[in-house]
Specification:
Largest sheet: 4 strands, antiparallel
Number of strands: 4
Order of helices and strands: EHEEHHE
Strand order of the largest sheet: 2-3-1-4
Distance between the termini: 8 Å
């Protein structure tokens, strides 16, 4: 099993999580629905941290992720969410073992 994983840690502007979630949830749904190289796109909320949202994304490879960043739905999310994000950290990983497979 191989794949390309992106972990994104968003610190959302206080009080803006609901607005941010509407945007990221739509981006996640569109990514899974329209991008053949997107295998998984999870949106997570850490317990007890109301201004933090995490993403766990799996793509077939880096090229599939780069294609994702050129889609219209990503561009709309990126532009609309910019004012809602206080900080963002991105970690790139290689998927070496998928426990459910």
């Amino acid at each position: 099993m191989s794949g390309y994983v992106i972990l994104v840690d968003f610190q959302v502007v206080p009080g803006e999580r609901a607005a941010f979630r509407r945007l990221i949830d739509e981006n996640a749904r569109e990514s899974c629905r329209t991008e053949p190289g997107c295998r998984r796109f999870d949106v997570l909320e850490p317990a007890g941290e109301p201004d933090r949202v995490l993403l766990y994304e799996i793509y077939d490879d880096r090229a599939a992720f780069e294609a994702h960043t050129r889609t219209g739905h990503f561009a709309r999310f990126d532009a609309a969410s910019a004012a809602l994000v206080a900080a963002k950290a991105v970690t790139e990983c290689a998927l070496v073992c998928e426990g459910g497979a």
